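Internal QA ticket QA-208
Title: Verify multi-chain structure generation after dependency bump
Assignee: T.L.

Test input:
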Amino acid sequence: MGSQQPLEMILVRQLSKHLAIPVWILEATGELAFYNEPAEVVLGVEFADLGPLVSVDISEMFEITEVDGEPVPEDELPIMVALTTNRPSSRKVRFRAKDGIWKLVEVIAMPIVGQGDRCLGVMATFWELDE
Amino acid sequence: MRATLRGTRGSIARAGPKTVDYGGDTASVELRTDDGRLIILDAGSGIRSVEIEDQDTDRIDILLTHLHMDHVQGLPFFAPVLSPDYEVHVWGPAPILHTLRKDLSKYLSPPLFPVSVRDMPNTVFHDLHPCDFALGSVKISTELICHPGMTLGFRFEENGSSFAYLPDHEPAFGAVEFPDDPVWTSGFDLSNGVDVLIHDSQYTDSEYEDRVGWGHTSFSQLSAFAEMAGVSRLVTFHHDPSHDDEMLDTAHEELDVRANGYEVVAGKAGLVISW
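Actual output:
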């Protein structure tokens, strides 16, 4: 079929547009599919202002590190763990938002697994922690 | 390909003098392919009117979009499923935890119904995931579409022509704006550029306001969806049981006015569409 997203991904995106918590959605290919307005506030950049992004770009763009400042291997990011293992994953990380401010967040990522065990993508939420 | 609408009503059958034109039976469409195959779409009460022709082979395929009662209640009343002379293949959405056969057995078993699936001698059940497959010369594509419970839409392609069947569908569900980007619109790929689209047309715009999430389409959403998908002919379907012939005639006049680039065909019982 064509380029339309699977129904499960469409419904997750619709849901995220109605939520007041940040939601980030990746396709099964690792490409960023969408993030909602609360996520834009934390990330410091509107979704519409970003071009196509894959996970490696995301890691570099936001300079994601451990809490102590050490780099986080890309394959250990919660979104990548969820994507590659089909299991939920969480982690505290530090990143630099596009407005230049370093932020400490907790991330929870869960795989979107549809009928027939089709791996369709990942949905992640995150929230800022006090330093 | 040629389709005959055998049951056009949604939710529950409504027979009577006020529904003679559009029909009172629930969803079922008889599809005849160019290579002579009989494929039946959904098994609402309209399936009883499917005509088995002398030249038909002994194989019949029944494609179920989902298992709501208005789409399956006619199955045990369709004579070939109870006859050893026919090989009937029933295709439907694979449940998350069970099988199609097991889920159908919830209805087709006592005390809800005296006939069980075990009484269907030559019936084979096929669990369908979103995929492409072929029946003879017809390529069939299926995707999950927005409707409560596991629901499939179908697209058929044969000899360069195409047809899509989305009888229960709420593409605007949860959308902040509709129509949205086609990439993020349920049912778009199945309907994109088809010669004929049979689509849910259950609600008026005002009815939809009170029934968001019930899994159906309003008239104005239907117009927008058909235009977005670039269909050639739009056939209305799954008429609400509260809508009588007079009301539906008026609604179709309005759909005609809104149609931009496609023809609106009133989905009346017995209508034959060829393409």
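Spot checks passed. Chain B has a mean pLDDT of 96.
Status: verified.
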